[in-house]
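Write out the 3D structure for:
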Amino acid sequence: METTTSGHWAKLLRIATTFGLLGLVLWFTPLRATAGVIQQANPWWLACAIGTLSFGMLVQVARWQLLLDHPSVRFGQLLRIHLIGTAAGFFLPSSVAGDVVRTGLLSREAGLLERSLISTLVSRLFGLGALMLLAMAGAMLWPNPALRFAPNRIAGIVAIASLACAYPAWRLWKRVRRNHEWWLAGPRWRKRIHDGFEYLASLRNPLLLGKVFAYSLLLQGSTLLSGWMAFKSLSAPVPVAAAFVFQSLLQLGSLAPLTVGGIGVREGLAMVLYHGILQLPREQCLAAMALGYVISTILCLPGIALFAGLRKRPQ
C-alpha cells in the first residue's frame, strides 16, 4: 500500500514539474510572436527534417534486425513493430515506453523475449556512445570559447563509467558460464537468463559491433540534423556543429525522469543553450521546439494507424 501511494506521489510530482517548467518557459516567451515565427516556417526545410528522421527510422530498424540475427525476423515485421513503439513512446508518459512496447510485440509474435530485451539494451548503449561522439565532434569543430573542454578528461570519465556498468554484467556472465548445468536444469526463468547470456556472448564479433556502431552514428546523425533543419526552417543562424552539440544535450536532458516525456526540460535547455549562448530570440527557440513536436507527431501517424489495426490473436 505504501509503495502504491509513493508511486502516485511520484507521478503527481512529475506532472507538477512538467507544468511548472513549461509554464516558466511560456511566461518569459511571447506566444503571439512565437505563433508568427511558426507561420513563416519554410515547408521545404520541414519536409527535409521529416525525410531525414524517416531515414533514421529505417536505419534503426536495420540495426535492430542486425542485432537480433534471427532468420524468422523480417525487416517489414520489425518496421511495423518499430512504428507502433514509436507512437507509444511519443504519447505515453515515459521515455522507455516505446522500447517496452517493441519488446512485448516482438516477444508475442516471434517468441524472442531474451533477444529482444538484450538487443534493445545494446542498441541504447551504442546509440548513447554515438551521440556523445557526435557531440564531442561538434564541440571541436565549432570555434566557440563557451565550449572549451578537455576531451581526454571526458573520455576518461566515459571509460570509467562504462567499466563500472560493464563489470557486474561480466561477473554475472562468468557465473552463468561456470554453472552451465545448474542454469539449464532449473526453472524456466533460469534457462531464460542462460539463453540471454548465450545470445549476448554471440554478439562479441568485432565486425558485427562495428556495423552496429556505424548504424548508430547514422541514426543519431539524422536525428541531430533534423533538429538543425527545424531551426533552418525558421531562418535561424545555427551552425551545424553547434546544433550537434546542443541537440545532443537536449536528447540527454530529456531522458532525465524529471517530467512527463521530457516536456519542459527540453524547452528549458533550448532556452539556455540557443538563447543563452547563440543569442537567438526566445520565440524562435520555442517555435523550433514546437516544430519538433509537429514533426514527431507526423512520424507517429503510421504507428497509430497500425496500432488501431491490431487484433488479438486467438489463444
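Residues 103 and 117 are 6 Å apart (CA to CA).
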